[in-house]
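Example 3.2
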Amino acid sequence: MKVLAALSGGVDSAVAAARAVEAGHDVVGVHMALSKSRAQHRTGSRGCCSIEDASDAQRAAAHIGIPYYVWDLSDDFEDLVVADFLAEYQAGRTPNPCVRCNEHIKFAALADRGAALGFDAVATGHYAQLLPGTTDVPELHRAVDRFKDQSYVLAVMGRDRLTRSLFPLGDVASKDEVRAEAERRGLRVSAKPDSYDICFVADGDTSGFLRQRIGSRPGAILDTAGNEIGQHDGAYAYTIGQRRGLGLTIPALDGRPRYVLEIDTADNTVTVGPKEALAVKAIRGRDIVWLADDDAGDGDVTIQVRAHGRDIPATLTRDGDILDVSLGEELRGIAPGQSLVVYRGTRVLGQATIESSTRCEA
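Structure, written as tokens:
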């Protein structure tokens, strides 16, 4: 196959590209320039699309022996990922930019442009598996390394792109194995730190990034009785379940910590309360992306609501573009805007964006 290998400049994508070549594919490497700041520098494990990352990707391609190109997708990234991130926070929701990036950039802009250029598939360093199923479309499964598994952020890619994707690292037992392989292959990125947090917030200060882009919008922090107990600079900087950095001026009568329970962007208020009030028993999702046409999701399934969250037993009902989920055990800190991914065993059945949740009775 003619394969387009996405080279981020990290160890995972470099080893994935090398494995694709070793498998006999005709591979071309491409680095996606997503940042508007070409002078941006990496700070340890933070940041992406830096000068260092582009240089590391180029060196990896040269060492592997494949052609290398840089595609400027910064306009797409700004319009489809960063703008969505800002809009969701302004609406009081909690987005996952990695999900949007996989949906709009890595498996839309990259894969679709690659297909237009005659490439059969895109290879990435994601930790997930594509396994044969009962239909012509492969099944998306968790990676063998459950700790590094990234199937949660890939669930939004859609059935069509499953047939045009390769995940060469899905069968590795651990990240240490990937680093050891990179070292054996002579790839200089073998010891490069993993990136984490939000890639376009290089310093890790999400609140500061939002404040810079959106501006200060002071408002009241309320308790569950509606009493004002503090002030905020912008409700957008808070998320459901948040405990730290609330800026409260009046302590709780029982001395216990308080958590964000509700964000009302219309009134520009943030309501806080006890941890127990965060517990939910049901979730409603919208914008369903269903990967398993041969499995309706009936019977026992599990769901995951965070990138590295645990499996929660659940039953679900699909009605058009609405997914209603009844939880087998309570969850806390569920925020609108998060991705909800449905699994049967290790297989990804589908994904939806959380719209609302039903809290447990006190």
